[in-house]
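I'll show a typical protein example:
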Amino acid sequence: MLQQGTFRGFDVAIQPPGIALITFNQPERLNGTTQDIKRDLVETLIQAQMDDAVRVVVFTGSGRAFCAGDDMTGRPLPDAPALVPPIPHGHREPIGTYNGLRRLSQPVQVAIRDLDKLCIAAINGLAIQTGLSLALACDFRIASDQARMGSATLRFGLLPDEGGQFLLVQMMGVAKTMDFLMRKRIVPAAEALELGLVHEVVPHEELLPRAMALATELANGPQVAIRLLKRSIYNAAEMTFAHALDEIAAKTAISDHHPDAREGAGAFREKRQPSFNAWLEGR
């Protein structure tokens, strides 16, 4: 079961019909992350994957930031329950940095992409470096008109080491990514929309209601087919056409024989709205 409550760096709550809302809760730090927060986020996403009560995950922030990167101050986190015990973060020598990135930082983006359930980033403010990569790893991104997005790691002589370069290339292509990263750009929401980094921009006060409305729409859809299709879309981005055809055929062998497919066909014949997910609702 997905644990709800206040944890190190974020809150977790489940809202009907199966929406897990994860809110970064350190506005005074611009919701900066630490290795401990990242490990707890990964644990939360593993729990969400295994909990049938969760259908969609929504990320958002509090205050004026979604997540403005890592918290570099070294200040201890406020007292809150930990989902996993702390371990050394590495970064004391080159191999430690390599290990810390591969096993502590990058797994957040991997966990989001590997989650079968759809993820929405409701970007309320600054989304920088870690925050940018986390948002880009999500399946949908809705931005407040007050949001700003960028990596800008070169300002500090650093690299976008959590997968941002890959995710940007997927969404914008090589040429635009080169300009975006090399020129250390941090763009407002309207420009992020033009670049293809977000799906839509809404007035700030409408951000969370719009994200939850989208989450509700997706949560009421046929969950088995949705989860198979999410994986197939990401697989297709890295496959040949022949492999993608074989992959979707294998998944269709599951979805075509699921009760949701029979319900969808019956609803079409009867000219009514389908009622999917009986398997989740005990019907």
Q: What stands out?
A: The chain has a mean pLDDT of 95.
